Structure formats: structure tokens, C-alpha cells
């Protein structure tokens, strides 16, 4: 295969993937020396992009256009075969369901590039891409039927409790027996990874891609590579994957458990990701917790400029406001304990507790993350391998997602409703959650000029029960004195703003 | 009445109350100027004690002997009638059930003066002594049938939601209509208070006496007296009550909500209590919480030398170890939300949640406090007025108390059992609690030389189910995968230490 630019696609939708391919030299360490660029131009907009070596003498270069219209490009390289190619294509309107990459909207929220608001409802299947084909097919089918629009997944294989088998393939040339050449990538592995990212894209799911993790423990050695090999890996994966609009860069999982790396290493790796990604995909880093002090965690400073949002492991989701105050960025508690029954404390809460944590985080303007860890005869546990969901929390999380997506665009955490954590728009819309609190009644302080209707929401039974009266001013709403109740109050005639 | 020293009791049991009474002048502000002392001597032990004016020309002086044998005393005063009296009495062994005052044993625990360990199981009835006789009788009867061995109660009346009626009497001369003379005490009120402290003593209940609180809001003015009047009040109550062995000094409830007082005021008041109490009764101060940040509380520095233990309001009882590390003193979370259904968030959790919080604190080497706030047709709510207990948590708290009191004397929080918060003695005795965690099994790491038996404890059902096998070394214990379970593991042949 050796397509010329004029054989490249002539039309690509906005935030789609444009790709050109050339043949070039196979010798002289092309993964490092096969450097080539393209400059894409559309009106005054200019974007520089790097290509990568895909093995067998094949060189690829990918680009994600962010505006419609005609784009022209020219390639540059010290390698003759890759230099000086020019071409153009037309960027068409995004197709239905394509809202572009997710970005940070403000200090509390996310949105898609087209302005549509995005509420992350994430789950975790760390090593799902490393499982046999049949398991991966079930994982995708499970995700299709789930409320999840984000998934945390690792590039490197995982060696951990309930997850000790070798992966189907590796990112590098070599084998567990012979060892790995961490300077020569395995393009087939990355092509497979890209296929899975496209499967997720088709489901509207963001791939929160974990670039490094400690769950190797020296078995394959990917958790303790030389700094230059870490850098090479980042340059390569950034060149390959940045053009996929649903990729997020999760620098590490439990970064502080990777004892071979220092804080300077993490800062350096973040800087590389920020510089090498032309599109500014979201960047975060996730901390570990200590056995006996889940509340005393070693948090990376999410205030650093290259961190776009807080990716937090913590067992107290009510701290959302503290973290936002501390870092001024949206808060995603990707790990706040998982629904399951394994002996580990991070993985044995009830579906009720998992649901409760999603609501607690949501009404504070943050987002909890899902994971499932039920013991399984064949050791197939969702959190590690994906496969099939068994828990009862996803249905409740879907219920919450519907309710959150009905919120007005400009909703924020409010502090005017006493005795209830509330999200909404002052005077117009209030969504509150009582959690472990179960008052027999609630005193709402509403605009005396306004008319409101209230709904009592049972977050576990997934019922919405309208209060059979129109409310105004200070009024008392009777409640079923049981835990897990939410209250929604909406103005009948919204004030035109 | 004008008894001479030789009319005073000739025998008093250890930690009992010895009292002498004289008649003296009624004029010239005897509450301030009626200063008199006695020096008590027993061998090389010498204790100086202050007397107080009890109205109608009566002056009293009380003493709590802390060792058996003959005590001699002599009085001294600028007032002729009170000066130079001498006498003696025999201090006999403490009677059954009299273990002396509670003291701090170590950085985590309490004990009675006779060495018996004391685990505080407190409840809160702030204004119970201010209620009508009939309610007070029911309060005492309820306490007699309860697991509680400590009660938080205020000296000053309370003006707050569900607690707005005037008290039966006041600590000062005057009335709500005419106002109060805060320089002239009402001896009848204090005599009544003393009677209630004696009723509690008979039930083995410590009176955690709240000296100041903000729930007056200027209605009677006791929350905003001049500094000299605060001091006079402390001197008076210390002279009257210090000889009662079951008195604890709680400097304030929600001290930080008393906006008229500064930190220097609290330090000064603490210094007075420490200096004027010859027996060193326990001293603490209790903080308030903010509506929307229960976790960001303004804690008094419990590390200050006059604070004997931490009296904390916080909604996260799992922070016990953090506070102990910070202050190096025993931790009592007197307020961690109450069982009830009132609209206030501090008072509407379930009995299950209240029980859960007691266990969470206990296995970390701390102690939670109980309160009950169920709506009541006549507004008689235990937390404010006492009366009758309606909740389901006291029975579970009694169950926990029995289990804690079976612990070996030298039990401490342990860190060797992974995945379970544990209290006990390494290698010999483990009491763990899983809380919201519900593992299907637990991996115990026991001494391979030892033989152990385990009990699975359901903290809500109050059942203890022995595991039907002898355990040793690393072993797996199957568990019912449900929340609220505890596990007790005891060595069959304790190692002789």
C-alpha cells in the first residue's frame, strides 16, 4: 500500500479522523528516527501534526479537523519518501451524535466542543482490551446497554488479584519468555487498541486511557521503564491516538504507588502529553489510598496547569466542594469504592451505597465513578476484565443520568436551600438529595412571586412522585422519612433571563 | 442550722462528699466576698478547698477525699464566723460501684480512679433539668434502663427549636420579666442541679456538664454576660460541684457559635476551671459545624494543656485516628448526627446509621455519642428535654457496650489485620468491624503457633455466631456479604505476658 495524497479521503466530518499513509524505510530505528510532520491550514487556522511508524515500512499521519471548510496540508520530513507531500480535503458538518471532544466548560463542569453539556458517568474495566475476543465482545455489549459514557482502561496489561493471566498481546515486540524490546512497538497491538476506541466512540463512550499504572510489579517491566522509553512511548501513543475525539489522557492510576517514578517524572510526562497533543484532550492523574487512612491520600497537585480536571480516588465523596475550592477544576471521583463483595475494602459495598455515592457527588457538582467487583467462578470481574455486569447500581445510575441531563444548562451547586445539598438555578430549578438524612418534612424557601411544583424522587426505587400542590414562598413539603430520597422543585413559569 | 465541725460527718467513703456548714453574714455581696477556704491533710497529702455561699447566711464547704485514712482540716477566712475551725474525719473504703472519678488513662482511653477501665457511652439531653418534674422523673427512669454512662446536659436553660418554653427555675435571682441579677445566684437552682447529679451518680452516669452554650440568643442573656460575671459563675459552680465525683466540665457546646466570646475568653475560662477544681475533673470543649461543610469545622485546639480529651462534633467518625494523632488525647465524638426525623440534618439519621457510627468510632479506639430527635406531638424530644426514649439504637449500643467491656484491659487499635478496622491485643484478641463493607470472606493472618476461635457478630440483629472451627495461621473465614458485620477472634490459650 502506498497511497498518494490524492488517494487520501477528500471529505472528513468535523472532529472526524483524516489519515494519510506513505511507505518509507524500515531500517534505522524508524520508531525514533521516522520523524515526520504535516501542517494543516484552514483560513487563518494552522495545526501542526506528527506522524508515526506503523511497521512494515508504513508511515501514517492522522489529523482531527475542528472546523468545517477546506483544509490544505503539506508534509515535512528528513526522510525523502515522507517529505513535501501536499493535499487538501473538505471538512463537512459533524454527523448526528458527533459533538466533538469533551472539554472543560468551567470550574465545575464539562461540555463537548459543540457546546453540548457532558456529565461524565464513568465505569472502570482496567484490562478489558487484554482479554480474549469473546470477553471483549460481551464487554462492548454490556457497555451498549449501560448508562456509562466514559470508561477507565489501561494501555499496559495488568498483573493483580483476580487478573493474573497474560494478555492476548503486548504493546512491544518480544514475549514474557524472551522479554520485551521497549524501543520497538507492536503496531498490531495499537491497531487493535484503536479498533476498541472506535467501538467505544460508536457507543458515545469516552476512553479515559490510563497511560501508566503500578499493576505490573515488574512482571513485564512496563511499570519501570527508563525515562527515555517512557517518553518514547508517550510520543508514539500521542501521534497514534490524538486524532480520536473520544480519547482522554489519564496519566496514571494510583500514580503514588509507582515507586520507581518521582514527582518530577510525572511533571515531565504531563508536559510531553500537553505539548504533543495538538487538540488538548483532557489530562488527569489518579491517586491511590492507604489501607487505614482512606482520608489521608497523597493527592497530585491538580492545580498544576497541565491538569484539566481532578481525577480522584477517595472514599468520602462529600469533599467535592473542598477539592473544587482547592484546585478550581471539575471533580471526578473515579474511584469511591466499588459495588461488590471481594475481600478488599475498595471493592465490597452494596449497590445502594454505590448509588448513594453517585447522588452525593452529583448534587455537590461533582461526579462519582462506577466499578463492579463481585466474586465470579471464573474470576471474570468487571472492574478488571469487563465481560458482563451483574450489579444493581447501573440501573440507578441510568436513572440519575436522565435526571441530571434534564437540568438547565446553567445549573450549579446552590447554597440557599438549607438542610439539603442542592444543584440547580436559583429561583428556577432545585435538585436536592438527602442521602443518609431522612427528614419527615422539608421547609422550602421559594420566591413568593413564583409558582413551583415539586417531585419526590426515590433514588433506589427509581420513582418520581409529584407533590400534589403548587408551591410558593416558604412552604413545608412532607417527605417519607427514609434514606436515599431526592427532591426536585421547578418553577412553573421560568423567569425569562 | 449552724453545725460545728464536730457535728460534721465522722466517716466518708473514698471519693464521697464531705461537707461542713457554717452560718455567716448575709450582707456585703457574700457570693463574691464570702471567701473561705479549708486545708485538708492526710499524711503528706494536702488539699486546699474553697467554700461557697448557699444563701440565707449559710456557708458550705465540700471535699472529696481521694485516699482512705484520717483527714484533718482547718478553715481560714477573713470572715470571723468562718475562720479557724478544725476537725477531722475518717475516709473509708469506697463502697461497691464507687470507682472514683473518671480520668484519662492514655492517649486513647479512660479509666476510673481505682483503675477500672471506663468506656464512655454518652447521650445528650441538653435541657433535661429545666423540664417539669414529671418529665425529669421519666428521664431518670429512661436512663436507668439505657446503656448510657454519660450524659451531656446544660447548666443554663435552652432557647432553641423544639425547646422554647421557659425553664422551671433559673441559676440567678430575677425573672424573664424583671431580668436577672447575674451577680446573685439562686441557691435553690443549684441545690436542685446537685440533686440531679446525685441521681445520675446513683445510676453510674457521668454528668458531662455544659458550662456555656449559644442557645440563649439573648433571651435571658446568659450567653453574653460580662467576663467578670462568667468568671464569678465558674468560681461558684466549681466550689459547689467539684466534690461530686461524676462531674465532667464541658466548657461549652458549639463554642464557636458563641459570637460574643473570643478565643482568649475560652482560654481564660479553661484556666479558671483547671485552677479552681482541686480534683482535676475531665475538661473539654465541643465545636459546632457549618451547614454546607460539616467537614470544615472550627475545632478548638484540644492539644492545649487544660483540655483532657477531645469532645468533637463531626459527621465523619472515621477521623478518630487523625484527631488522636493531632491532639494525643482520647476522642469522644459527642455529636455525630442523631437518630431521628427532624428537618435538621444533624438530627435525622436512622437507628442503623447511629449504631454504625458507634461501631466505626469504637474499633478505631474512639467513642461516638448518642442523641435522639424524633418529632413528638408535644415537642418532647429526648435530645432537648429528655423524657422517654423511642429509638432503636440504644439496644444496639447496649450490645456494643457489653462487647467492648469484654475486651482485654490493654486493648488498642491494631493495624495488622488488613481490610478490617480492628481493636484488641496483638496475637490474642481481635475485634473488627466491616461497616459499609460486606466481603464474602475475610483472610485472617493469625499466629501459626496459636489456636483461635472466631465469632461473626451482626451489629444490628445483635447476634454472635461462632465460626465452627479452630483457626490458626493464615485462614479464610466465610462471611455473610452484608453491611454492619463485625468479627471477633480470640486466642484459645492466651499467651502469658
TrEMBL record, chains A, B:
<dbReference type="InterPro" id="IPR017853">
    <property type="entry name" value="GH"/>
</dbReference>
<feature type="domain" description="DUF5060">
    <location>
        <begin position="11"/>
        <end position="77"/>
    </location>
</feature>
<dbReference type="Pfam" id="PF13204">
    <property type="entry name" value="Apiosidase"/>
</dbReference>
<dbReference type="InterPro" id="IPR032260">
    <property type="entry name" value="DUF5060"/>
</dbReference>
<protein>
    <submittedName>
        <fullName>DUF5060 domain-containing protein</fullName>
    </submittedName>
</protein>
<dbReference type="Pfam" id="PF16586">
    <property type="entry name" value="DUF5060"/>
</dbReference>
<feature type="domain" description="Apiosidase-like catalytic">
    <location>
        <begin position="107"/>
        <end position="370"/>
    </location>
</feature>
<feature type="domain" description="DUF5605">
    <location>
        <begin position="421"/>
        <end position="490"/>
    </location>
</feature>
<dbReference type="InterPro" id="IPR041239">
    <property type="entry name" value="DUF5605"/>
</dbReference>
<dbReference type="InterPro" id="IPR025277">
    <property type="entry name" value="Apiosidase-like_cat_dom"/>
</dbReference>
<dbReference type="InterPro" id="IPR013783">
    <property type="entry name" value="Ig-like_fold"/>
</dbReference>
<dbReference type="Pfam" id="PF18310">
    <property type="entry name" value="DUF5605"/>
</dbReference>
